[in-house]
Amino acid sequence: MDPELARYLPILKWGRGYTSTALSNDLVAALIVTVMLIPQSLAYALLAGLPPEAGLYASIVPIMLYAVFGTSRALAVGPVAVVSLMTAAALSNIVEQGTMGYAVAALSLAGLSGVILLVMGLFRLGFIANFLSHPVIAGFITASGIIIAASQLKHILGINAQGHNLFELIISLVAHLSEINWITASIGILATVFLFWVRKGLKPLLQSFGVPSSATDVLVKTGPVFVVVATTLFVWGLDLADKGVKIVGVVPQSLPPLTLPSFSPDLLGQLLLPAFLISIIGFVESISVAQTLAAKKRQRIDPDQELIGLGAANIGASLTGGFPVTGGFSRSVVNFDAGADTPAAGAFTAIGLAIAALALTPLIFFLPIATLAATIIVAVLSLVDFSILKRSWTYSKADFLAVLATILVTLALGVEVGVSTGVALSVLLHLYKSSKPHIAEVGQVPGTEHFRNILRHDVITDPSIVTLRIDESLYFANARYLEDKIHNRVAGDKNIRHVILQCSAINEIDLSALESLEAINERLGEMNVQLHLSEVKGPVMDRLKRGHFLAHLTGKVFLSQFEAVREVGSGAALNNTPG
Amino acid sequence: MDPELARYLPILKWGRGYTSTALSNDLVAALIVTVMLIPQSLAYALLAGLPPEAGLYASIVPIMLYAVFGTSRALAVGPVAVVSLMTAAALSNIVEQGTMGYAVAALSLAGLSGVILLVMGLFRLGFIANFLSHPVIAGFITASGIIIAASQLKHILGINAQGHNLFELIISLVAHLSEINWITASIGILATVFLFWVRKGLKPLLQSFGVPSSATDVLVKTGPVFVVVATTLFVWGLDLADKGVKIVGVVPQSLPPLTLPSFSPDLLGQLLLPAFLISIIGFVESISVAQTLAAKKRQRIDPDQELIGLGAANIGASLTGGFPVTGGFSRSVVNFDAGADTPAAGAFTAIGLAIAALALTPLIFFLPIATLAATIIVAVLSLVDFSILKRSWTYSKADFLAVLATILVTLALGVEVGVSTGVALSVLLHLYKSSKPHIAEVGQVPGTEHFRNILRHDVITDPSIVTLRIDESLYFANARYLEDKIHNRVAGDKNIRHVILQCSAINEIDLSALESLEAINERLGEMNVQLHLSEVKGPVMDRLKRGHFLAHLTGKVFLSQFEAVREVGSGAALNNTPG
């Protein structure tokens, strides 16, 4: 087997060793996931502003393509809450919801996102996702959960309301509150309360009856299916659709259709940034689920290949009537817990959903929209987690600021601005922190070869020597700070004859910093002060040798700080004649 | 004396000890700088697209305000080449050159820039300037020098040509080449050649006559004055203005007028970004000159106070008919070399220029524009220095890329896009570099307590232990990389029971990295592998103690790597029974 081919087609690895045990495990997992996915897919299509069948379609071909190209054995790919919200946010800025153009734009968004992911995978650009810090993601997910929940309240209450951010939504909800449909509201609120109870109350109850924990977990996940069946029967039996309860209505009985996204350069231009953000957010969500599950079985995940898998899945979605997809947390965990052994479980799930799309759609004609909204609300409120605010406050104020800004901006100005602000702010805060590195003036601990901060320890110093330990790599953002620090330390003290930079914590010196060191060396020279370095790391030294700095250095480079002080100190004592 | 007041008014410090020696030194320096500044000020006003008197005005009040608020004793503030170019670039996008609106917009730009500098100084935001890396500045200055020289060719040749970037300029020059005025061209080319000769050939000549080096330096700087006088007399004597040679013409005889910039929100909005870039570039240029000169006399420079000084100077320029100013390199060096002792030299220079503005302007009526263009070209070509390309190529490819992009984008798309691209690219490259930190797997050097890279040294390892030394602080951009690295190292090797992270080079762990460590700890736990840390720095450890990570850590934190391996290794040997 060609190893290069196997890298791009992981199916070649696991497919060869496929056993009948794996087959039966995969089939069982697929059945459970299929049952769970039917209501979830319909609901996320609703959230994305698309007809319900789009949710089913988005779960069929993408999951199969991921099975071929992805490296995770348990990841279940399909519509997920945050990506669906971002899809709605991106599209409703451009085309009107409910139009044909909206559905076509959703295909383009999925296709564009697929191409972006694929390109990132092929060129190994996965590192771009690293610019999303954990606190920013946590803040973003929390804020998105709140917006999603708020956006579904109108379906629960049976009223009209719109808005791209939380405040617009709330104002619109309040303005339309008089139009409330009480039957819809009763169904919606009961469904929501029931689903919350299933999450919180059912598991302990079942366990008290002695049902094993693994089974209760799976049963809890099928709660939405029960609500779907019950409320559909209820609406059908009591003819509530005639009383103003909005229902799903006609859903075509069809396999996923072959579709072509719009290639309008204008549309693609407008969708580029949203597609990029959706790709990154989707990738980050997916890879963290994949790695968590892979660790449980000591399996490997290749992030670059994951990009290719998700890219293929999204391109698949764009060609078969779907919308942007990614690896979902809850469905993947169910898949894993239900015993999925290989990506074949995903393929079987796809077959299950295809059967549902072909045969079962007439059964959901009377399914109330309020029920779908209830499943969304219950699902996303588990994403809302303000503890990150407390965690970050305790650990680091810079991280706290990034979280807070991400949450507030996302709520106030929407998902795209929110996540962009978070990324920009965390980059700026990081640069700011490293622009003022910790620089300790150190002295010798008596009787040892160790050097410690003169402010914290009782150490020996020599008035003619200043030793500074810089606890940060030197690069453009802090190069000038070092110049200022050294200049101001030396300019005021005429006893100083030697400055030693202890470089033990310097992992890199970029060209800006090198030029700053040259300027420092020259300026110290003007003041008749020698500059020395000590404990320079190998790779840093290798690089310094490429420039002229070492040739012009007024002092020396010492292997250890101790050696530096011993040599320079005695030299200074000899030379240090008055005047 | 109130020390807080003295910080904001450095004049209170040096003013009290002002001596008659300092007075005579300052007067001599001021005379020399004044003579040099007259043609330079006129020329830079031309470059900024403003009438010549604006250059004189911009050198009078700003230099006095800097004398009060600035901390450098030798810095000479006024119009400089790059800032004048940026002024022209910013304004000609918005208003037509030569109109009254253009001059008023220049006042607004100076005022806005002054306020930005002042705010940065008062809130100690000088670190923002650090995001301009040295290579980006070098590339930007070089590209600007080329654009400036190209923009002056039309004056040398006596033709019309326009363009915001190099290519537009060249195309426009070629298109108008047939309109060349040969008399203008002769004056322009001769003046240029003469000025180049003064720079390169005059000094050795004078020195061969035994003139001391300090005097030759000053004489060389007065070359432009000689050319101004000679060409003015020439044009006047031969009535060349009637033959199509463009001259300066009527310049009002006046002290700097009191002016009010436009406060139109629309205009200020459009000028905000250019004003910000001008402020940053100007500050960086100014502070590096100030520090270089201060070092020669062991004087201190306070960067935040420098911002205040430059801010005051620019606000002064906006209220007295000027345009954006900063501390210039060549004038400051002349000031220093001529013996300026205190900022009073600047004030005396201002008085000299005020006298020139009042009395001497009729004398420059016949001064050809081509002469001013020649002085600009010769001045800026000394800024053009492609050696940074070679330097950066040798030292670091990332820095090379940033320089090259800055030069090319500045030439192709203009100064604002150029410098913004440079900054964005250097930030991205920095994040990219630190997103894939050097992680070495280390083993014990036999017979020592040292641990070295297993790929480079012959070391002892234990199959049940993996020790990774991470040569970088851990933060969001590299947190996931570490997760991948550790996961993939451990997932494939079932012998591993312990992972030790040697943290000696980790200066910081942000919240993202902390959460990654928690995820790593948990995932390793799933694989039945313990995670240990060794050689964690004090501040990092302090912060780790604030979270729950240490409580959940499956392994221990060791003071030294040696201790870690000794304890964990023997434990592993005891527990490591087959199966």
Automatic annotation (TrEMBL), chains A, B:
Keyword Plastid: no
Domain of life of the native organism: Bacteria
Cellular component per GO, a single term: membrane
Major location category of this protein: membrane
GO biological process: transmembrane transport
Coiled-coil stretches: none
Transmembrane segments: 27-47, 102-125, 131-150, 180-198, 218-238, 271-295, 307-325, 345-365, 372-389, 401-429
Membrane topology: Multi-pass membrane protein
CDD domains: STAS_SulP_like_sulfate_transporter
Keyword Transmembrane carried by entry: yes
Domain STAS: 455-568
Subcellular location: Membrane
Protein name per the record: SulP family sulfate permease
Keywords on record: Membrane, Transmembrane, Transmembrane helix
